[in-house]
Amino acid sequence: MIIDCHGHYTTAPEPHNVWREVQKANFKAGGNVDPAYPDISDDEIRESIEKNQLRLIKERGADLTVFSPRASTMAHHVGDEAVSKAWTRRCNDLIKRVVDLFPETFVGVCQLPQSPGVDIAHSIGELERCVNELGFIGCNLNPDPSGGMWNGPPLTDKAWYPFYEKMVELDVPAMVHVSGSCNPNFHATGAHYINADTTAFMQFIQADLFKDFPDLRVIIPHGGGAVPYHWGRYRGLADMLKKPLLRDHVMKNVYFDTCVYHQPGIDLLFRVIDTKNILFGSEMIGAVRGIDPETGNYFDDTKRYVDALPISAEDKAMVFEGNARRVYPRLDKILKAQGR
Ligand SMILES: [Zn+2]
In the annotation, is 81 catalytic? Predict the structure, then answer.
């Protein structure tokens, strides 16, 4: 089967977005940051999915999408901790409704109620709720809740450790995923996202996080940012920093997805990175929604690029299914319970 590890609910019904605007306005005015949530019917949710993600999943020939709230609107830098907490719960609850309506097509991954300067331990409760009560299989962890200012500690700092302990205990991975950029130097999806992917990888090289957490699993999206292209630089830096080889130091714990929107990029990813570290992902209806005039296909139709690779059927099965089942053990359990 074909598992897309990277999908966001970018087409959520409008009342959900309106609620967020009301919340932000209330915060500014010093009012209630958790106002009453609108009634959104199952039919509204169904329509928002059937016309969009489900249509494309069928057209492109995938089976299942690991689905999380829209990343660019997590906007952890907006408001304060209470604002982030209330918004995050609404977003995760909406994902749960999608999963319940389409249990064979979507599994949930949660947003976290991060907020700049707030201890990441405050996000543990929502992770537990989403995994234990909503049946989610992972989380999106924002390495820069400030939205482009990078004024918090690096991902390898001990401040993050309580959260990693809980991830290991629950046996869920995190996708390292920033949100919107409030720094005009960094376009959100064109610069901030790719910067963050690259930055996270370098942070992992500099420290010994995976010595402390040998079972921690992290997905760096968007093909690992600039990392595969600059693989020699990172191997060389690891050597200069007197760290072990990257395959032992980082690549037992780090995975890249295939959200790279052209064939040469995917070719390079597979040439440089071991197949066991690559998960199929498309982030469809996300950052780049148009049609590539050079190919006539959607930029984010990444299955085409993987299909075109000259690799064995076994390797393709790993990328499309096997690796995802290994990285998300709770997904494997859900699928087995469904007889898949
Ligand atoms: Zn994403």
Answer: no
